[in-house]
Design brief:
Elements: H1 2-13, H2 19-47, H3 61-83, E1 94-103, E2 110-117, E3 120-124, E4 130-139, H4 144-153, E5 155-160, E6 163-168, E7 173-181, E8 185-195, E9 198-201, E10 204-214, E11 217-220, E12 223-233, E13 236-252, E14 255-270, E15 273-277, E16 284-289, E17 294-298, E18 304-310, E19 315-318, E20 322-329, E21 334-340, E22 348-354, E23 359-363
Parallel strand pairs: 2-6, 2-8, 3-7, 3-9, 8-10, 9-11, 10-12, 11-13, 12-13, 13-14, 14-15, 14-16, 15-17, 16-22, 17-23, 18-22, 19-23
Antiparallel strand pairs: 1-4, 4-7, 5-6, 18-21, 20-21
Helix pairs in contact: 1-2
Amino acid sequence: MKEERKRILEMVESGVLSAAEALTLLEELEKEQQSRQKKEEELLNELIVIEQNEKKEDREDRQFKQAKSKLIDFMNSVLKKIKDFDFDFQLGQSVDVSHVFHHADAYLTEMEFDIANGKIEIIPWDQQDVRLECQGKVYRTENYDEGRTTFLKNTIFSIENGKLRFSTQLKLMKVDTRVYVPPAEYERISVRIFNGPFSMKDVAVGKVKVKTANGKIELNKVAGDEFELETANGHILLHDCQAEKIEAETINGKIEFDGDFSNVDLHSFNGNMKGRLHGDDVKVVSMKGVTGNLELELNRSLKLDGELKTYLGKLGVDIEGKEVLEEKDDVVHKQMRFVKKGHSVTPAYLFMETKTGSITVKEREMTK
């Protein structure tokens, strides 16, 4: 955001912007900054687990709120370090611990992961067993037996009634886990990680919900009904995926998607967004950014109804046969509304908006 403010002031100095126009833009950026900070706090609030050692039911709610507020302030400072790329556990000595959780001939329809520190990878294999390969690091201990005991005591693995549950909530422990599961169509996969990335490939699932405060989210050849993806600090990448609906949001990071989606809703406060839609059943595409560029490729056969907005960037629509209904090209406000005839029964509605970036919409190159 600092670079955008500097850019606006330079445009005032060079006479491109008036003081009033610059003030309007700076106010818009300030609103986005406040929205970004609020979103960070909401995500941290959701991912932080408050461990209450006291079990007295009559403990005052005020004490709990004070403790929670202090913890959120602490986690906000941690997240700031993460974004400044100088995050380090700095927790002293540690021991490495490896462990395998194995469940033979598993019946599985749902998976749930709740991780404090570490990455999760979901990989299908050609067996009916479920296997979790964990590579852990337990801090503030030099004794292997003590570290292993701490790991096992603070790790939960279970499969009951078709639901896999895996949890490592101790903050003084980092666990990277590869999850091997049978090839099947799963109903739901839910992932919560405070510090670490998530990846999954070659999986069919009804609903995917992933939230991480710090880490990349990557899906490769995943087919499902609904994807809900959110990270405060990291990229969101979807390669050759398919879903009826996708919602993705990152505060600091880019979003890239490639696949067949009907309803797309994307947000990035600080990062570019780029996508390629392969299918002909596109209903709604909404891409909203603040400082990044937006780029979208679509099939030529689609009927389109598009609306594009930016303050300081440029608008580019390379669509054959488009009809521009409305266009505004002021220095601090650019807007275009266009339609295009196509073979689809109803038009795909496009809404793309960024404050300081540029927007490009073009037809996808068809490969033979």
